[in-house]
Design a protein that fits this description.
Elements lengths: L1 E4 L4 E6 L5 H15 L3 H11 L13 E4 L10 H16 L3 E4 L7 H13 L5 E3 L5 H10 L5 E4 L9 E6 L1 H15 L4 E8 L2 H17 L4 E8 L10 H13 L4 E5 L4 H10 L3 E6 L15 E7 L1 H13 L6 E5 L6 E4 L3 H4 L2 H15 L10
Parallel strand pairs: 2-4, 3-4, 3-5, 5-6, 6-7, 7-13, 8-9, 8-10, 10-11, 11-12
Antiparallel strand pairs: 1-2, 12-14
Helix pairs in contact: 3-10, 4-5, 6-7, 6-12, 8-9
Length: 371
C-alpha cells in the first residue's frame, strides 16, 4: 500500500492493492487525527462551501480513479487520466482516490476495486481502460445513483455509465503525415503494445497517413505481445528491443502506441538519434523522458484527462454525462502535439499536418479504423 502524502496531509490516497482498501481508509483517518484533515476531506468541505464553483450541491466523496495496466508513471495513457483527475479535484474542490492495478490480478479483483470505490461514496468512478468493462457493467447495476465512466470501451450500456471513447485513428493519421514528411530514409516504424482492435486503430491511422503523404515510404510494423497480461503495455525493455530492431532495419522515425513500453521506444530512438513519436500524452513534456525530448518529434494526443475532467464536471454540476461520448479532432480531444521547437521549425512538416487535420475535420479525408 502507498499513500501519496506530505508530512501532514495527502494529495489523495493511491492504493496499490485493492485488498488493502480498508487499511488505506483507516490510515487516512489516522492522518486526519494527527495532522488535521486529509486534503481529500478538506477539498470536499471546501467544495460544499464554495458558492461560485458550481459544486455547492455536490455531496459525494470525490472522484474515484482505477488505473489500467502500467499504472501511474507510464508517461502516457494512465498519466493522462491522472492529469484530468488532479485538475478536476483542484477546480471543483473535491476529494478523490486513485488506485493501482495489482500484478497478475483477476477480473474479480477489478470488480472488487470498482465496487470498493462506489461503496465508499466516490462519484464518478472511472475505469481507465477497456479491461474494466466487465467490472463497470457489474458494479454499475448495483449502484444506480453513482455515475461510472470507462475509457476506451463502448460496450457497457447503462443509464449511469459514460463510455469515453476516441477517434485514435485521426491523431495517428497526423502522426503518419509527420513521419512521412520527416523521414530522410523513406522508412518509418510502428510499434503497438498489444495486438488488439484498439491498437489496430492506431496502426491503421498511422499507415494511412504515411501512405497518403508519400506512398514510397516503407513501414515496419510490430506488436510487442498478443495479450495485455504478457506485458505489452508495461515493459519498457520490450519497447526498447523492438525499436532497436526497427532502427537496425533502417527506420528513422518510430511511432509507438504501447503505454509504459513506449518509454523504451523513445529512449532507444533518442539514443540512436532518430525521431520518435509519442502517444496519448504530450511526451515531449514528460520529465522522465527529458533526456530524449530533442528526438520526440511530436505526440498523437488523446485527451483522456479531458474526458475524465468532463465527466467529473458533469457529475459535480448535477447533470451527469452518460452513454457513448466519442472524442475526435473536431472536439479538440484528439490531435498532434507540437511542443518540440525542432518540429515547429520544419515548416513543410507542420503545414502538411495542419492541412491533414483540416481535411479530416472538413470531411475530405476519412481515416480507416482497421489496417
Amino acid at each position: 500500500m502507498r499513500l501519496r502524502r506530505g508530512s501532514c496531509g495527502t494529495r489523495g490516497a493511491r492504493v496499490s492493492r485493492l485488498t488493502q482498501v480498508a487499511v488505506a481508509v483507516a490510515s487516512l483517518a489516522l492522518a486526519a487525527s494527527a495532522c488535521g484533515k486529509t486534503s481529500s476531506e478538506a477539498s470536499e468541505d471546501e467544495g460544499k462551501d464554495d458558492k461560485s464553483g458550481g459544486s455547492s450541491k455536490y455531496d459525494d466523496k470525490g472522484i474515484g480513479l482505477a488505473y489500467d495496466i502500467g499504472g501511474q508513471g507510464d508517461q502516457s495513457f494512465n498519466d493522462a487520466a491522472y492529469a484530468g483527475y488532479a485538475k478536476a479535484r483542484k477546480d471543483f474542490k473535491i476529494g478523490g482516490v486513485d488506485m493501482e492495478p495489482g500484478d497478475g490480478e483477476s477480473s474479480a479483483d477489478k470488480v472488487q476495486r470498482i465496487e470498493q470505490l462506489a461503496k465508499q461514496g466516490y462519484n464518478p468512478v472511472v475505469g481507465v481502460g477497456y479491461i474494466y468493462a466487465p467490472a463497470i457493467k457489474e458494479v454499475a447495476a448495483k449502484f444506480p445513483k453513482t455515475t461510472f465512466g470507462i475509457i476506451d470501451d463502448n460496450t457497457v450500456k447503462a443509464d449511469n455509465v459514460a463510455d469515453l471513447v476516441f477517434h485514435e485513428e485521426q491523431g495517428s493519421y497526423l502522426a503518419g503525415v509527420a513521419a512521412a514528411k520527416a523521414t530522410k530514409a523513406d522508412h518509418v516504424g510502428f510499434i503497438g503494445g498489444v495486438d488488439i482492435p484498439l491498437i489496430h486503430k492506431f496502426e491503421a491511422g498511422f499507415v494511412q497517413g504515411v501512405k497518403d503523404t508519400n506512398p514510397k515510404v516503407k513501414i515496419e510494423k510490430q506488436y510487442l505481445t498478443e495479450k495485455p497480461e504478457d506485458g505489452g503495455f508495461s515493459s519498457p525493455d520490450k519497447g526498447e528491443n523492438a525499436a532497436s530492431g526497427q532502427i537496425e532495419s533502417g527506420a528513422d522515425v518510430l511511432y509507438h502506441a504501447a503505454g509504459l513500453s513506449g518509454q523504451g521506444v523513445i529512449q532507444e530512438a533518442g539514443s540512436q538519434k532518430v525521431w520518435a513519436i509519442g502517444v496519448d500524452s504530450d511526451q515531449y513534456k514528460q520529465k522522465a523522458l527529458a533526456k530524449y525530448k530533442d528526438y520526440i518529434l511530436g505526440s498523437a494526443l488523446k485527451d483522456v484527462g479531458g474526458a475524465v475532467y468532463d465527466l467529473t464536471k458533469s457529475v459535480v454540476e448535477g447533470k451527469p454525462i452518460t452513454g457513448e461520448q466519442r472524442y475526435d479532432l473536431k472536439s479538440g480531444r484528439v490531435g498532434f502535439a507540437d511542443s518540440n521547437p525542432k518540429y515547429t521549425a520544419m515548416k513543410d512538416v507542420v503545414a502538411a499536418v495542419e492541412k491533414a487535420e483540416k481535411d479530416i475535420v472538413d470531411g475530405k479525408v476519412t481515416v480507416k479504423t482497421t489496417p
